[in-house]
Amino acid sequence: MNPLRPSGEAALPFFVYGTLRPGEHNHDLFLRGRTRSEEPGRMRGLVLYEGPGYPYAVEEPGGAVRGELVTARPEVYEELLASLDALEEYVPGDPRNLYERVVREAVRADGGPAVRAWVYVAAPAVAARLRADGRPIEDGDWRGGGGGARARHRG
């Protein structure tokens, strides 16, 4: 059993909404040459908040985030999953995580069927701080909210 994936979990695509999107700095560093497909999509039940040079997605009913649905090439999937976890400083079960990697449904922009995908969302303590004092990105698009022009660090 792979410790990065829950038992029985398939090799899911990733939903990216920040610096991992095509054209952004971390896309080139982490995803270029490792993906089979990248397509625009949306994920409901999330609200984006400004972060220090990168956004946080916070789970909130009624929200929607725009991003890309990225499918990794099978031969690099495990390596990519580990690399993205390291980028997001995510360790399964660690209470100090800033992000949690969870499975949620994403919808392709072309209207295709919903797909299950990994997404990094703000960990509970971070989400609580953002809800109390954070600045939401109203249109759910980090690029539209001006975030893409800021310093780039995370995904």
Describe the structure concisely:
The protein has 155 residues and is of the alpha+beta class. Helix content is 18%, strand content 34%. The chain has 3 helices and 5 strands.
Protein traits:
single chain; alpha+beta; globular; disordered C terminus
Please provide a written account of the structure:
The structure is a single chain. The radius of gyration is 14 Å and the shape is globular. Mean pLDDT is 88; it is low at 1-8 and 148-154. A hairpin with a 6-residue loop joins strand 2 (35-49) and strand 3. The chain contains three helices and five strands, in the order βαββαββα. The chain is an alpha+beta fold and 155 residues long. The relative contact order is 0.26. The longest helix is centred in the middle third of the chain and has 11 residues, at 77-87. A five-stranded antiparallel β-sheet has the order 1-3-2-4-5. 18% of the residues lie in helices and 34% in strands.
Oligomer: single chain
Helix run count: 3
Helix and strand run: EHEEHEEH
**Which class best fits the helix and strand makeup?**
alpha+beta
Unreliable stretches:
1-8, 148-154
* Side-by-side strand order of the widest sheet: 1-3-2-4-5
Query: In what range is the share of β-strand residues?
Result: 25-35%
Main sheet summary: 5 strands, antiparallel
Shape descriptor reads globular
Helix residue percentage: 10-25%
User: How far is the first residue's CA from the last residue's CA?
Assistant: 26 Å
Determine the mean pLDDT: 88
Radius of gyration: 14 Å
